[in-house]
Amino acid sequence: MSDNRSGVPVLDPWGESSVVDYGRLFEEFGIEPIERFADKFPATHRLLRRGVWFGCRDLGRVLDAARSGSIYAVMSGIKPTGVYHLGTKTTAEAMVFFQGLSKAARVFYSIADVEAYCDNGLKFSESHEIAVGNVADILALGLDPERAYVYKQSEEMRVMNLASVFSRSVTNNMMRAIYGDRAFGLYFSALVQAGDILLPQLGFFGGPKPVIVPVGVDQDPHIRLTRDLARRYRDEFGFIEPSSIYHKLVHSLTGSEKMSKRDPMGVLTLNEDPKLVRRKISNALTGGRATVEEQRRLGGEPDKCVVYEYYRDHFLEDDERLLRIRSECLGGQRLCGECKAELADLVVDYIEKHNEKKASMMDLARNLLEEGSRIAKQGGSIL
Amino acid sequence: MSDNRSGVPVLDPWGESSVVDYGRLFEEFGIEPIERFADKFPATHRLLRRGVWFGCRDLGRVLDAARSGSIYAVMSGIKPTGVYHLGTKTTAEAMVFFQGLSKAARVFYSIADVEAYCDNGLKFSESHEIAVGNVADILALGLDPERAYVYKQSEEMRVMNLASVFSRSVTNNMMRAIYGDRAFGLYFSALVQAGDILLPQLGFFGGPKPVIVPVGVDQDPHIRLTRDLARRYRDEFGFIEPSSIYHKLVHSLTGSEKMSKRDPMGVLTLNEDPKLVRRKISNALTGGRATVEEQRRLGGEPDKCVVYEYYRDHFLEDDERLLRIRSECLGGQRLCGECKAELADLVVDYIEKHNEKKASMMDLARNLLEEGSRIAKQGGSIL
Q1: What is this model's ipTM?
Q2: B125 interface with A at CB cutoff 8 Å
Q3: Which tens digit of pLDDT belongs to each residue from A138-151?
Q4: What are the domain boundaries of chain A?
């Protein structure tokens, strides 16, 4: 979180790491605490129970649709530059969850291959192969392919046409107020993302409907821009303001605020080699004390511990076992070394099972992308 | 021509009218006088002989290709919001001329239907019908459809992907230096036009080649931006800086600098009703004197006369007859009333013949657009 020139605090969707003051998000940006909606969820989820989802916008609209069986869409995207890590996995799990709440939900998954080219120099053919793996990942996590449109940014002309339309009503001042003083290209890509988020509401896809966008909270500026555009173009397109649900950023193993592929020892991917998993986790930042004696006496600090975060947010579904770990840590019975080894076992096991499932999904992933290409290329009409 | 905030003179590609100081264009913008290349043209044309084409950039590269039989492209575009007028006709004639110079020339014609929606509220289905007429117009003017790719902006994803790539290297300052302080949407559309201009050099279309862009001189800012981008992305795409040839802006019948559809009594379209042609021309601004007596004594001023401009630049191929008209005017033998009536006859005759040809081209135009859609939808790969 940083201040832009006019002193307005901004979240930085393009930043690598930043210290997010979650309390300020509610007061200053109007993000709603998730607790308000906790009893409206038709099902529960680890990410909800453990507080990884902490904020949202207009979530009631989507939960109502889920409970009444009326149509809604689940939208998010990924830049296909590498395998899933815990951050992209968290978004994917949210998509699968919201798709699973109702048979009337349809997923829209944008593969940002144009971004992957611009930012990382990956040719479309290269990022396509990576995307096949990413799609197999989300299929392994439970995505129902029958109700999913997976498209590549380089092919979905409707998104670009929406971005062109939107470009006429934004001003540099407006973009600066949301994003701070950024490069022209980032403003351009923000409009493309607004196009992605509003795509499910075009006539081609059945017209206006509630849309839930599960993202890391650093992406909220895109949500605010898009909601603003939805209001501006309501008369023209009938848009309903998209809803969002935010997950806390996943800390890297080295303790920085946002897991990123650019920090190799901090990132944990879903195809990590078991040996490397153990090495990375054994080097992870913990909430342990300086000495064993001190740890026995004072107990650990799980709320400052990345290892505990990974149990809680990612690798342990069993609530009771989690509480046991927590109390053992606080009580000084659990030392960091054994705790790390136990997590590493869980992670290695998770990755092994995940990759078995993923391997069986590769053909389906390829087909889903092909089907997406076919739909994307049907035309550019947005009206 | 106006001054932007930093005092740099700018041409305004989006303006309706402006007084262009053609001399300054050579000195300050580096546009080359066309005379330098006059003896390199393998064929002549009314627009060249009469000085309507007055400036260019890197024209030698294209004329060399035309004479040697090596491949080059001819690129321009139109916003499909109405029928051809004399301005769009002038661009189309240039495209037909440059295509005709060599069997190795291929035309790229961009139908800016996204712009037509953003600026004029025309739905794609509406602008499509207008585009059919526009394409029939250029076919009637002699375009060879076998060597022409006519595509709609709303469908040619490669153009948008190029624009996305280019967006990463332009800055607000750079755009301001070229265009002045303009709305975000105009900067956005400028990048799309750069994508249009560089499209013919993509691998899909056979890779780097000379490209000639015939446009009104007010479009030069787009050419400068695109040449800059071609240099920046030379290593990545192999781009050759596009060449351009500029025609003077067509005065409206009421005397304003740039003919525009927005000035109904000033515009002369190619499907004007004969009665309206006669009425508009009889009201046109001339270089005539205050009284008949004065006109007889001093002669007229053809170089200040829109009626003479239309003979010279648009409706009279016969050089001798043009010179006769000029000397009769200068000598006071020719009065404005008869001169206007004579022009009106020529125009009515031209329009009648043109529309006969155009009517026979409508099916072909429709097919050419369909074929363009097919090619546009083949993919978004720019690499």
Answers
A1: 0.90
A2: yes
A3: 999 999 999 999 99
A4: 9-378
Report how far apart, in Å, the C-alpha atoms of B225 and of each of A321, B189, B213 are: 62, 12, 13
* Single-letter code of the amino acid located at A134: N
Best of B119, B153, B184, B186 to substitute, by most chain A Cβ atoms within 10 angstroms, is B184
Sheet holding B53-57, edge to edge: B32-33, B53-57, B243-247, B211-216, B72-78, B105-111, B148-152
Cβ within 8 Å, pair A184-B164: no
The candidate with the shortest Cα–Cα distance to B194, out of B243, B154, B159, B237, is: B159
Least confident of A6-15, A83-92, B235-244: A6-15
User: Does any CB of chain A come closer than 8 Å to the CB of residue B155?
Assistant: yes
- CATH code linked to domain B2-251: 3.40.50.620
Please report, in angstroms and rounded to a whole number, the separation of the first and last CA atoms in chain B. Answer: 38
Q: Is A164 on the interface with B (CB under 8 A)?
A: yes
Q: What is the pTM of this model?
A: 0.92
Q: Does 3.40.50.620 match the CATH number of domain A9-378?
A: yes
Percent of chain B predicted with pLDDT > 70? 96
A106 to chain B, closest Cα gap in Å: 25
What is d(CA A10, CA A140) in angstroms, rounded to the nearest whole number? 35
B9-29: per-residue pLDDT in tens? 457 777 654 557 777 888 888
